[in-house]
Amino acid sequence: xxxKTPLIQVKNLDLYFGAFHALxxxxxxxxxxxxxxxxxxxxxxKTTLIRVLCGIHKPTSGEVWFDGRQVKEFHPKLxxxxxxxxxxxxxxLCDNLSIARNFYLGxxxxxxxxxxxxxxxxxxxxxxxxxxxEFGLRDNVSADDEVERLSGGERQSxxxxxxxxxxxxxxxxxxxxxxxxxxxxxxxxELALQLKEQGLLVIYITHDIFQVHKLANRIVIMENGEKxxxxxxxxxxxxxxxxxxxxxxxxxEKREAV
Length: 258
Ligand SMILES: Nc1ncnc2c1ncn2[C@@H]1O[C@H](COP(=O)(O)OP(=O)(O)OP(=O)(O)O)[C@@H](O)[C@H]1O
What we know:
- By secondary structure, the chain is α/β, with parallel strands linked by helices.
- The protein contains eight helices and twelve strands.
- It has a domain at 8-96 and 167-246: 3-Layer(aba) Sandwich (Rossmann fold), CATH 3.40.50.300.
- A hairpin with a 2-residue loop joins β1 and β2 (20-30).
- α4 (121-134) packs across α5 and α5 packs parallel to α6 (182-197).
- The longest helix has 16 residues, at 182-197.
- It is globular.
- It binds adenosine-5'-triphosphate.
- Adenosine-5'-triphosphate binds at residues 17, 20, 22, 40, 42-48.
- InterPro entries: AAA+_ATPase, ABC_carbohydrate_import_ATPase, ABC_transporter-like_ATP-bd, P-loop_NTPase.
- This is ATP-binding cassette domain-containing protein.
- Keywords: ATP-binding, Nucleotide-binding.
- It comes from Paracoccus lichenicola.
């Protein structure tokens, strides 16, 4: 069960891009140990909301609270320091670097020999090997291999493994299964559930309400910059949620999900 105090609280958030009103009075709570599906049509404001949480966009007005403290400065570095990691399909890994190097990207361990700093390749290799095995990469893949030889699902596994190993508290998965095979999609979704079981907050952005309904404990639907639904998956079926999206938030009769 999620904690009572939200890890992230978004309160009455508005964001304008010039004259364009991209987020309209959005309030939403996210708890540790939850897997929340964030869905909505193209241009609904999902990515914009997430970018506020990642410190990329500063809201025009409203508040964001993280772990009981109000966020005063919006900067990607601060979000990373708070343990917020975003996993996107197309970014986050450097193809021409090894899995081990990618694993430690931006956090490379250093050892000093006679005062001169060297990358601690042994440490990078050992830990990333352990994690890639735990996260289901093929046995013939080694930590020294370049990332470009990995499949889409394996790439996602490296990013998810990295998020867990570096003790992130929030993992935002932005369309994490696009272009993946059925088996890879299942694997990535299993990893998302594992993160939730380990007590992380997982925010899962997708257009696929049917897929995320099976995974998430809660679904937040956005439309034209507004939050139009925030429902436990146990309280609404995927068909009903799809109807909410189709009707743009007009009232849909709720019934128990089966
Ligand atoms: N930097 C920006 N400058 C101006 N407008 C922007 C900017 N970023 C997003 N928008 C606009 O804000 C609206 C919401 O975009 P956003 O990317 O948040 O939607 P989304 O729900 O993530 O959609 P998709 O599923 O297509 O990615 C869109 O109309 C988009 O064109």
